[in-house]
Write a structure and sequence with these properties.
The protein is an alpha/beta fold. The chain folds into two domains: 14-101 and 186-335, Isochorismatase-like (Rossmann fold, 3-Layer(aba) Sandwich); 110-176, no CATH class. The chain is 30% helix and 11% strand. It has nine helices and 13 strands. The strands form five sheets. Strands 2-1-9-10-13 form a five-stranded parallel β-sheet. Strands 3-8 form a two-stranded parallel sheet. It has a two-stranded antiparallel ribbon with strand order 4-6. The longest helix has 16 residues, at 153-168. The protein starts with 24 loop residues before the first helix and ends in a 15-residue tail after the last strand. The mean pLDDT is 95.
Amino acid sequence: MVKNQLPLPPSYDPAKVGELRMVKYQEIAKSAKEWAGKHGIKPAASDRFKVCLMPIDCQVTFCFPGAELPVAGALDDCNRTADLIYRNLRWITRISPTMDTHLYFAIFHAAFWVDEKGNHPDPMTMISVDDQKSGKWKVNPAAASITKPAGNYAGLSRHALHYSEALAKTDKSILIIWPYHAMLGGIGHALVPQVEEAIFFHSVARSMQVAPEIKGGNPLTENYSVLRPEVLDGPDGKPIAQRNVHFIETLLSYDAIVILGQAKSHCLAFSVQDLLNEINSKDPKLAKKVHLVEDCTSPVVIPGVIDFTKQADEAFANFKVAGMNIVRSTTPMDQWPGMQLD
């Protein structure tokens, strides 16, 4: 153990990272209380230098082999995340995990689309503007029930084309059909137990409420980033979604923001890019608040199908140039750049 870091508590077992299990809250609460007393851990409200840890989408659906959309390496990332939380617990003020959250009918799910024979697209199908204009893929009439007013199939079809056109104007140039994942109420939606247990331990030991951020519930737009959906307006110019202004302001109120989680190429990269955009609109020097934990995140790689490693690495390189800090979980937090910790 490095000086100033805490030892790992006896309740933590790295070998359990691959187990789908219930967190034993009462036992963990008792253990965390005793741990806080033994190591002189103070309530987070007394922190002079405030640190927010944002674990992005550390959910079963992204982290467990055999789950709906597993990221290779994510379970190891989860163990390193738990280790980081326990060892640096005295310095982390609040933890705000993001949680991807979906239902059956969504513009990025197969159920939303059909071909001329009524077949749904396979996962990882890419639907372009031309695919819609040619009729190769069209909106499933059954999906019209999600629109307001219900049953407006023509309006939903116009929105779908507008959506793809809006994506084509950005560097996220095409709509991807993802496997059903992070389904609300399902096991895949839950936080990885190893991470959830560490977060709960922190809440008890530091007398601080966990502050989850839910994203992805709007069926008319993708929502990789926790700070904003991909498309904000419909074909008529009326808003269909909005930026997560309150959470943006909350994050920037902290002295340091620590970000890790899944996936490095998508939800994490898009969240960090949106945060950087917000920072640049206010004061680019604020980028130095942000610490990206590079050994606690992995890119989407589907062997033989698609590999986003290059895009993930390029994003991190750009974030570093912008002034953000690239750090590792094995380095004590009080040795990270700019950390004025007691």
